[in-house]
UniProtKB/TrEMBL annotation:
The active site is at K194. Keywords: Pyridoxal phosphate. This is dTDP-4-amino-4,6-dideoxygalactose transaminase. Pfam families: DegT_DnrJ_EryC1. SUPFAM superfamilies: PLP-dependent transferases.
Length: 378
């Protein structure tokens, strides 16, 4: 079960369930039965909250979590929300759901994540334009910590709340504090390719109980409680996590630390086995930074081979890889949005590649991938 389903192909990041996960789920249902299976969502929330040290609401996706975070911060039509440009579209799409305006900020070379300097420039400039940003969404790309302490300091100075998109970074930390717990609100993804998966799911965390209360209310169709009939006084959403997903999540949380260690080992293997003349790996701040290394990502050195050629070559050899995130300010859907920066994220996109990083990979897979890359690049 832990092996890739198609042994002829090495995948980027498959969901990784072990027979113990399935046994765990069966035992949960044997103990509680379907009638009380709803308790699984609460149990999952408690277990994740214990890891994070603050409250959690389990949701159907991280995208839904970002949407509700935006609502909780009372972001409305034409408000401005700053977001990392180097990320998946789901970080910024929920800004559009509420008809607010995304403003994108470039990466820094140090972590590939949001540049604190360009962030400050963006906030000041938007304030000068009479549009004080209502929130900053900062992403820890590929599970590598952004300079989240500096970013939070800047946002505190200008009194702008931080939403930490830690979709790729559950289990990662900075200065001993879990990613996702630095900002006012943090969000995680448990979709199929993440470090742990519930087969689709997300979570929101915050230290503010009133936000937790609002999120639970909206996520469950805004049903007023304490009445024998269904009463709705606000628009609601079906964003709660399902019971099967929660059961799987309980089992997967038990192996979170192990999974992160495995991903970090995969990253270290590539770093040690692929000559530094070929690839430049996503750097990590040395000061107490602990990345989840969701996807091992690197930039191709030199001009001999570009990422299109490497991508096609790996595909031909049965290896799935992926381009780095195309910056959101370059995506057609966001082309009207303001952007602060230079072209750092664009250069990452132009030169980068993510390599197979799943927990099901064997040493022989890693050796095969490294050998193939060396053959092409050296
Ligand atoms: C940075 C980032 N944010 C948000 C999401 C959305 O997560 P979900 O698929 O759980 O909605 C993802 C998912 O891949 C992501 O990588």
């Amino acid at each position: 079960m832990s092996k890739a389903k198609n042994p002829t192909r090495i995948w980027l990041s498959q969901p990784h369930f072990e027979s113990s996960d399935i046994e765990y789920i069966s035992s949960l249902f044997e103990r509680s039965g379907m009638a009380t299976a709803y308790q699984n969502v609460g149990i999952f929330e408690e277990k994740l909250a214990a890891k994070l040290g603050q409250n959690v609401v389990a949701l159907s996706s991280c995208t839904g979590a970002i949407h509700l975070a935006i609502k909780a911060l009372e972001i409305k039509e034409n408000d401005t929300v700053i977001c990392s440009t180097f990320t998946f579209a789901a970080s910024a799409n929920p800004i559009l759901y509420e008809k607010a305006k995304p403003v994108f900020v470039d990466s820094e070379t140090l972590t590939w994540n949001m540049s604190p300097e360009y962030l400050e420039q963006a906030i000041e400039s938007e304030i000068k334009n009479g549009q004080k940003p209502k929130a900053v969404i900062v992403v820890h790309a590929y599970g590598v910590p952004a300079q989240i302490d500096r970013i939070c300091e800047i946002c505190k100075h200008y009194q702008v709340p931080v939403i930490e998109d830690a979709a790729e970074a559950l289990g990662a930390s900075y200065k001993g504090k879990m990613l996702g717990t630095w900002g006012e609100i943090g969000v995680y993804s448990f979709n199929n390719n993440k470090v742990i998966s519930t087969g689709g799911g997300g979570a929101l965390t915050t230290s503010q109980p009133e936000i937790i209360e609002k999120i639970r209310y909206w996520a469950s169709q805004s049903r007023e409680m304490g009445l024998p009939y269904y009463q709705h006084e606000a628009v609601g959403y079906n964003y709660r996590m399902g019971v099967m997903a929660a059961a799987l999540g309980i089992a997967q949380l038990e192996v979170l630390e192990k999974r992160v260690k495995q991903r970090r080992k995969i990253f270290n293997f590539y770093q040690e086995n692929l000559d530094e003349k070929m690839l430049y790996w996503q750097p990590e701040l040395t000061e107490n930074s602990y990345a989840s290394r969701w996807l091992s990502s690197a930039l191709i050195k030199g001009e001999k081979v570009n990422n299109f050629v490497l991508y096609d070559f790996l595909t031909l050899n049965g290896i799935e890889s992926r381009f780095l995130w195309k910056p959101l300010h370059l995506q057609p859907i966001f082309k009207q949005c303001a952007f602060y920066g230079n072209n750092i994220a664009e250069q990452l996109f132009n030169k980068g590649i993510s390599l197979p990083s799943g927990n099901d990979l064997q040493l022989s897979d890693l050796k095969y991938v490294s050998q193939k890359i060396s053959n092409l690049l050296l």
